[in-house]
Amino acid sequence: MPGFGNKYFVVKDHFRILKNVGSSPSNTYIGRSRACTPVLLSTTAQPGDEIHDLVGGLHHVCADTGETHHIQMVPSKGLFEKSYGANPEAGRIVELQRGMFLEEIEGPTLKYNYAQAREFSDKTHPELTGGIRMVDRDPLEDVSDEIIDALQEQGVSIIPESISFASETAYSSARACFALGGAGDDWSKSEDLWILTVCNNARAILRAPDRLHTPENYAADINFKAGPISDLVSPMVDLVNELAPGASMPGLR
What is the model's pTM? Predict the structure, then answer.
């Protein structure tokens, strides 16, 4: 149970959810009993959908069809791994509210079917097929593409080989990373690179080059939900070049 009582939210912008569509017998045994692994569909919550945070767990209700699923906000840890501290599901909901992806409402406005959610999650799949299955493109990838376009319009050099995307795990959020600025035959060893990390909580953080010996949060931190990405990237680039004048402190242009 992520919260301390029933709460209801409407989706305001796209984000990833994990729909529980059943379980699969795993290769793990506890005594003579065979453990099962959930089968999760990683897909995108659409504006207008609802998230119901109930005592019995989280549910997603599709605005178009009314289809209802048990969901997770973050992937599960291993069967025998302990979790400490705050419930990660509750933390994810708070992040989504702060990032303006979710808005709390007084009660459900869509027709829902909790029994249908139970039917989905009770389904048994073939053995050893559990885990997360990607259904569609992560919205973070689209945001990353927009940031790349905005940076290139500002004359910022992006090293294509450095671009990487990591899906969300039980230990880290989804993120996309790019190396900007200095290049060379072996770009990975350059001391003049700025590292841009775009996270799925609507933040983008730019870290200064290693040789500047600055704190990791130095330079710029933007909320790409606060306005058009092109309007946010331009002042970020200007700030970096103001903080990094000359060859001794490499900028982005």
Answer: 0.77
